User: Fold these one by one.
Assistant:
Number 1:
Amino acid sequence: MVTRAELPPPVGSRLRHWLPFTQMSGFDVRTRTFVRGRGTMLTDAAGAHVFDAISSVWTTIHGHGHPHIVEAIARQAAVLDHATALGATNPLADELAERLCALTSLDVAFFASDGASAIEAALKMAIQYWQACGEPQRVKFVHLRDSYHGDTAGAMAVSDIAAFRARFAPIFVESVCYDDAPDALARDDVAAIVFEPRLQAAAGMRIVAAERYAGMRAPHRPLLIADEIATGFGRTGTMFAYEALALAPDLVCLGKGISGGTLALSAVLATQRIYDAFLSAPEANRQFFHGHSYAGNPIACAAALASLDLFAAEHTLAHVAELDAAMDGLLAPLTAHPRVADVRRAGLMAGIEITAPARRVADDLYARGQFTRPIGQTVQLVPPLSSTREEIAAFVAAFVDVLDRAG
Ligand SMILES: Cc1ncc(COP(=O)(O)O)c(C=O)c1O
């Protein structure tokens, strides 16, 4: 255990790096300056080794620095670092599209960069799809209560986040909350409903009851957009969370774990019906009007392909199933703790809602070698899929100790 007193003083009093969702006035560079990652562990500049209990915000899948992914990245960087996807392609992106479609019920893959850029692409795809179908009035969206889909304008508009709405409403498109108005799906001006399948991670690992999705199915016309950016790639137990819901989405957004958690890459998978609506003679200008500089980047795609290899080679989903079966038992000391109000979990995505001050608890956990980040009063445990029972048990033991000492 490393205490703050043992850490060296900050390097310089002023950091020029402005961090996302971080109050910089209180940021202490003595902790959380990460210099190395191996397996489930991160090492900070002061030499402390911490368990990455949030998979670096739900990105890391097989652990940090996995040699198979590292080699794939290095090999590809030496062959072709980047070439635009605007009117061109590369074999890595083509193969990844092929393999992602084979894993899902979808037919084509459109690549973007971060999760939010996949959401933006999906929203625009829905609008342009309806224009192609002769229903240009379908420009509005429907979202679920407590939803979160990212920080860009369209993604914020379909997120039920009060802090976004209060600050940025002037740049929102119109989106209706499904829970307030389930009839909205029958309206003829709605392009799509966007939802997180099974679990709303940013809302504090809220489990969404399967019944809430039941009413979204046909015969409604709006497209179904499944946001698998947090839940995709095995985190909830199945490769994709929507598989458990008997829903057939028209568009599926992927991000975060798609590259194994190594490089910025995201994708929108679409059905043939959507794709076909964009086909025309070149003069008709029906091509999709969206694209990012690094879409289909071959190095990121090589990482993603290597990550998919590892799912097979390391039997990742079978390992997750074993951990999943053990999780209730492993979490039991927290579930029973008097300072724990609720434990919510789907697969390896868990939220532990506590009554003690959550930020201080997270700081104390860091000092005990456990890196997590609270969402309000909910402390997250979303470990890399390669984690062991012992690592999760150690996280729980440290957490119980911190809670026992919390005033
Ligand atoms: C469900 C969901 N959608 C979209 C996003 C946005 O992804 P990114 O941060 O990569 O833009 C997130 C990020 O946490 C997410 O949890």
Number 2:
Amino acid sequence: MTESYFSEEQVATWREEGAVLLPSFFTPGEIAPCLGDMQKIYHDRAPARGGAHALEVERDGAVGTFALDQFKNFDDMPFDCSPALNLLGLHPRLMAFAKAALGSDSVHLYQSHAWAKFTGEADYEQNFHCDYKNHTLIVPSDDIRLRTINFMIYLTDVSDALGAVHYVPQSASNSITGPNRPMFLEGDTDTQFALKAAEKSGAAPAGSIFAYGIDVYHRGTNLTEVGGSRYTLTASYKSAGNDMIGWSAWPFSFLKPWHLIFDNATPEQLACVGVPRPGDAFWTARTLERAQQRWPDWDLTPYREALSLA
Ligand SMILES: O=C(O)CCC(=O)C(=O)O
Ligand SMILES: [Fe+2]
């Protein structure tokens, strides 16, 4: 059922080129409540953005920059809204794609953030970089199973005037930078511009996904449409047990509304954030009782049933 939403060819493109655009991966019906959630989270933070014009920026001969204020409206899961946005990054179709891409039968979600960008609020034009900078302390693995897959889910239509991500497929960047792909190319303006000449746009309608890895050159771009906004959700997966990769230690954010996830997710979705599956030896009469005390509305039936069958 889930596999029909993507093709082997798309998985192969992701593996060979480091990135693939998946148009209309989610239906409008799946996106609508998540967009409502984003509006709930970000509307109050900045009620007076309408009509804002793009920032005038002196680039000084550079492709872009890394302005800290671009991350002003950037939050880690879980989100203070309905369950919809909280469960989108754990959608079974994403898990299926992640498993196929990584060649793994068990995957973990190690990062998910909501990000709202608004015209004029920051300079979103970035330099080319590879994201392994902050997903590992070393470098991307040559073994596909030990890589990561990063989904950027579009909750609004993303055009070039609304800050579409730009990227350079690996076959094209290899002839520019070589296959080792230094993560920042610091100060190397010539290479930055050579990559820019080869860049592709990730522009696509709401519901589409830009699936990429931590080893592909890409960059955020500015929003220029007057009064424009771009809402995205990221979901990054790795094979379970890959300790080289990290971002969020989920229990660190224990004060956030995790009940939205526990009370509404399937055991398979919960397994993606480190909850042992039904039938795992972790589950005993005692751990079940304690888990129920901690999350009173979590339906532990499948876990109980698996224990009583054991
Ligand atoms: O939001 C985007 O389009 C890309 C941002 C990005 O690549 C980054 O911040 O590392
Ligand atoms: Fe990036």
